[in-house]
Specification:
heterodimer, A: mainly alpha, two-stranded antiparallel sheet, 11 helices, 2 strands, B: 310 residues, 14 helices, 78% helix, 1% strand
Amino acid sequence: MANLGEQLLNALTLAGLLFLVSAGLSLVFGILRVVNFAHGVFYMLGAYLGYTTVMLTGWFWPALIIVPPVVGALGALLESSTLRFIYRRPPIYQLLLTFGLALILEEALRILYGPTAKGFDPPTYLQGAIALGSLLYPRYRLFVVALGLAVAAAVWLFLRKTRAGLVIRAVAQNSEMADCLGANVARVRTLVFGAACALAGLGGVAAAPMTTAYLGMGIGVIVDAFVVVVIGGLGSIGGSIAGSLIVGAAQTWGAFYLPETAMVIMYAVMGAILIFRPWGLFGEEE
Amino acid sequence: MRGTRALAAVALVALAVVPWVAARHQLSLLTDLLIYGLFALSLDLIMGYTGMVSFGHAAYFGLGAYASALVLIHFAQPVPVALLAGALLAGAVALPVGWFSTRATGIYFAMLTLAFAQFLYTVAYKWRDLTGGSDGIAGVPKTALFWGGPSLASPQAFYALVAACVVLSLVLCRAVVRSPFGHALEAIRENERRFMSLGRDPRPFKLAVFVIAAVFAGLAGALFAPFRGFASPEVMFWVFSGQGLMMVIMGGIGTLVGPILGAMVFILIQEVLSSYTEHWMIFTGFVFVLMVIFLPDGLVGTARRLRARG
């Protein structure tokens, strides 16, 4: 029983991280109609900048608070200096552009930080394990679960209950109409892109104490995030939540019961869902 | 049109003359470039002529490489048998993958092909008994052209085989895109809804061209393994799929010849950069960004536009 509980919490931890990455990916697709290949690199950037911040200040919390806006600002800057000019082209061009950005950022991090992984510790009161009934579970992982849930709730409330969220949803639904009604579409795109990068950066900071910051972590996470949004449906936050939970569960239970074929399970689940819903659980037909 | 034919003749003569004049390492580099050219050519069939962006094309190159390596090492068959095995395995795997992926369109198609390719990459990585895991399969021999026939071990002989395969593939792909089947593909690219409203189902066409492209990519991979002497998971990695897309864009999407040239230029740029710095990836990234923004039609596309204007 304790074992099942532990697996469940592991799945939720993974789902929390996957949500932080896939939500931004999905949001950017919804607003900009761009699949951002560089999204995983912003996650990686968050982890490395988190390491630097912790090394400079000796604290964990500044990293969690300062790094996401910095990553977001960089994202917004890159969007307004490159992507903005090619929205009218077929999607392949935007995909390749973000692919190029991903190569540049990844290699820049390799030059700056070298090939060894960089780890840092969470604050002392989040270290060690806590007893949940008969189960001992790492406190930090519980914190990640809580963070994922809090951000999911915040994003959902922001999109549903605020005026800015309303404008974003309007641009997602019909950007030309929103433009005619006075929404500043270019600014919405830049801000959404930046916010999505900030979420990925937050995910990176949160992940680093567990996984360390290492080269290639961006690529690993982006492929998982693609599977999440394919399962959940692009452009839907609800889909991102559902997809993260499904992939988190598939990977956790797969790694436990069938360690050699854990990845296969994730793809099998994706394949099964796509047979019945080619646009994902919450996606809309194009 | 006459200009194009003259260019083709010059290119063929050049390909035939090179082995007599080029130094050993130059010939080896050119063989390499031609293999990548074949890979980009196959991608252009689905990308340029059908408008389907596959982000997992490296998987079929990799499948071809593994099949070829295994056949050559374990059965010591002539190279053409290995080429056939590589092309067939790639096509056979592309059939179910394509069946799933062509259910989706646009960006979903790209992500599905990527996910399947990463899956195949993981299989190649984990199935250590068959594929050698991360080490890959080394020591793939260049065997004979046919049973008891001449050896392909010399650089000239293997170059000739690769050049012949690339030219033949280019001719076949041209025939495909100029056939009624090819026109149907272009109709799907231009307006899939209209194609459906004319009473045709686009999916069999898309599946067919997906498999054909995988077969040619498999052939390129099957040439790669004996040429380099190894097959490893790297050739199935998604970065290689992305580079393939870039080769096509760089040369000129939907021109067949363009992607071959694009692949050559792309690999040459990498070769030159990597001899100066180990961080060449960063420059590759800049090339991507600048090409996409300033030269979206690629080399051949831009040249054609300039000629049409002048």
